[in-house]
Amino acid sequence: MTPEPTPAEAPEDDVLDGFDLDPTWSPNAVEAFREVLTVRPDIAGPELVALDQAATLITTAEALEQIAREASYVATGVKGQTVVHPAVPEARQSRVAAAQIMARLTVVVAGPRMTNSERGRAAAAARWSAKSERSRKGR
């Protein structure tokens, strides 16, 4: 019998080097954490705490999704009726909360910073421009 080969050493991860990641995080949570650090290597303080919370929420959502999947996404209600498994909306809510945190942390602004009003005007202009373009093509 030949001995099992020793697994190759994992390549150094310069992005995560120095961070004490929660060992219970899912691979997707670790990857999300890494991606934010790639975009925002200077992240610290409350933003780093928020990123940690987002990774925990991603892991929670995945665990809840697995529970719901194993139950075929259904449960029995108090009157014996079939209802959506309670883990389904909880998983969704965890994903929404994680996405909101991630969006706040990874905003990349090209060019000078815009105020909320300026962003709103730009979005409205783009929206109306697209609508008028569609209406001209439809005529």
Any overview of this molecule?
The chain has two domains: 14-108, no CATH class; 112-139. Helices cover 58% and strands 4% of the residues. The protein has four helices and two strands, in the order ααββαα. Helix 1 (27-39) packs antiparallel against helix 2 and helix 2 (45-70) packs antiparallel against helix 3. The radius of gyration is 22 Å and the shape is flat.
List strands and helices in order, with pairings:
Layout: H1 27-39, H2 45-70, E1 74-76, E2 82-84, H3 87-105, H4 116-138
Antiparallel strand pairs: 1-2
Helix pairs in contact: 1-2, 2-3
Please provide a brief summary of the model.
The chain is mostly helical. The chain has helices at residues 27-39, 45-70, 87-105, 116-138; strands at 74-76, 82-84. The protein has two domains: 14-108, no CATH class; 112-139.
